[in-house]
Fold this sequence. Notes:
The complex is a heterodimer of chains A (69) and B (266).
Chain A lengths: L3 E6 L2 E6 L4 H8 L6 E4 L2 E3 L14 E9 L2
Parallel strand pairs in A: 1-5
Antiparallel strand pairs in A: 1-2, 3-4, 3-5
Chain B lengths: L5 E3 L2 E3 L3 E4 L6 H11 L3 E8 L8 H10 L2 E4 L7 H15 L3 E4 L2 E3 L4 E2 L1 H13 L3 E6 L3 H10 L3 E4 L13 H10 L4 E5 L5 H9 L4 E4 L1 H4 L4 H21 L27
Parallel strand pairs in B: 3-4, 3-12, 4-5, 6-9, 9-10, 10-11, 11-12
Antiparallel strand pairs in B: 1-2, 7-8
Helix pairs in contact in B: 1-9, 3-4, 4-5, 7-9
Amino acid sequence: MTDTFQILVNDTPQQANGDTTLADAATQFGAQAPYALLLNQNFVPNSEHDRITLNPDDAIEVISAIQGG
Amino acid sequence: MTTEPLNIYGTQLDSRLLIGSALYPSPDVMQQSIQASGAQVVTLSLSRQNPEANGGASFWEMIKSLGLHLLPNTAGCHSVTEAVNMAKMSRELFQTDWVKLELVGDDYNLQPDPIELVKATEILLNDGFKVLPYCTDDLVIARHLVELGCEVIMPWGSPIGTGKGLLNPYALQAIRDRFPEVTLIVDSGIGKPSHATQALEMGVDAILLNTAVAQAKNPVMMATAFARAIEAGRLAYQSGLISERSTAKPSTPTLDKPFWHQMNYG
Lengths: 69, 266
């Protein structure tokens, strides 16, 4: 177990540690599939969500479909 | 009576109306309006997910159920980086390499940023996207986009949501005449079916609209009106419009008319 630190998911503070993956953080947030993820403003493909672990102050955005013109 | 199909990067479509999914009074009206329009392409977008609001799942399920081609936009992006990231998210989520590339240059009128648009277009084309760029009616910007490899370009008629129609028909006609091989779609500013007819009569290939249908008092009926207006405009274009004259010319034959010897006013 590593030390916990704070991250942001859609601007909401959330706790994580060095083992927390992007997928873990999205699940903890309550993200509902299908969604896409940005990590620190950069797109991360779905295939990487289980591989990338987080660092203090990382900012994640959970993105999904809405109406558009 | 036949009309040629609309070509979007090799995909042949019967309808020349592309329709948005926003601003409808209810999801049911959205669905009925899109169906009434006959559109085979529907635009949609991306936003931060709010799990407490079902994560947007109901909208997504409804759109999928329509079975149409999806055209994700990059609305609200102000930089190349934002637009490219949004395009990549859309490709993953919606399983399409089509993207309606929007890059706002000024919030006052949501005018596309032509310089950043060209940069983002190049990046996305090189990454395998089929880019449908929302641009102004500037011929030179259109030329840059075409030279990069865009097979579709989407100049505005007027700013998004204004309903002012074609503010600069001359500029649109110039783009049409200069790039006859490109699929030309007027995107934004269409307020009335007659605006759409005007564009199609000029040789514009298709119309992308949202507000004019979604905000009508009866969106479903207005969707039908636009479908017919666009079909009329296309048929007129293919039929060959007459040239304007500055003086009158009688349509009724005058030879052997009674009283022909009287002063003939035409």
